[in-house]
Description:
By secondary structure, the protein is of the alpha/beta class. It is 36% helix and 25% strand.
Amino acid sequence: MNESKVEITGFEARHYDSLLNFLSLGSYAVFIRRAIEKMKIQPHDRILDLGCGTGRNSCLMAKYLSNDGGIVGLDIGAEMIQQFEQKCQKYPNVKIQNYRIDEPLLFEKEFDKAFISFVFHGFPDEKKELIIQNIKKALKSNGQLFLLDYNEFDLAKKPTVFRKAFAKVECPLALDYVKVDWKKRLSQWGFDNFDEIFFYWKIVRLLKTELK
C-alpha cells in the first residue's frame, strides 16, 4: 500500500493553512517562522521552493531577500497555485511555476538554496531519488538543501494516542519515511555537511546539507 497524500485538492487545499494552524493547536505559524529563520537566508539568495503549496513559506522567505534575490515555487495544484499568487503578489521577485517535482526539471545551477517542506516523505523511494537529483542539478556548486520534514523515530515507542493520530493523518509512505537514516541516504546521493534543528519534541526536523 503506497497511497500518498502529497497532492492535496478540494476543501483541504482551499483551507490548508487554517487546517495546519488548527492541527498544531495554533503553533504552526511560530514554528515555520523559526524554521525559516534558521535557514540564514542572504539578501541575494535565489531559492527553489519545491512543493510550495499556498505560498506561506515562500512569502516568509521573501522577507529576507533584496531585489537581487528571488524565489521560484513549484506546485501542480490549481487551488494551491491560486493561493500562492494571492499571498505573494506583493513580492515581485517571487514566482510560481506549474511543475511536478518528481519529474525531470530544467533548472541547472540557478539556485543558492532549495527548500522542501513536508512534501518529501509522501513520495515513493524512486521518486525521492529523482527529486534529489533535480535539486542537485538546480543548485549552484555551493548550494544548500533544507529539508523540513519528520525526523527519524521509532513509532512503536511513541504513546498510543500519537501512533493512532499519526497513522490516521499521514500516508503509509510516511510510516516508512521515519525509519530511514536520511543523512546516510542523502550522503549516498551527493550531499554532505549536515546540520539538524529539531522541533515538536524531535518529531520534526530541519535538515540542512550541502552539495559535496
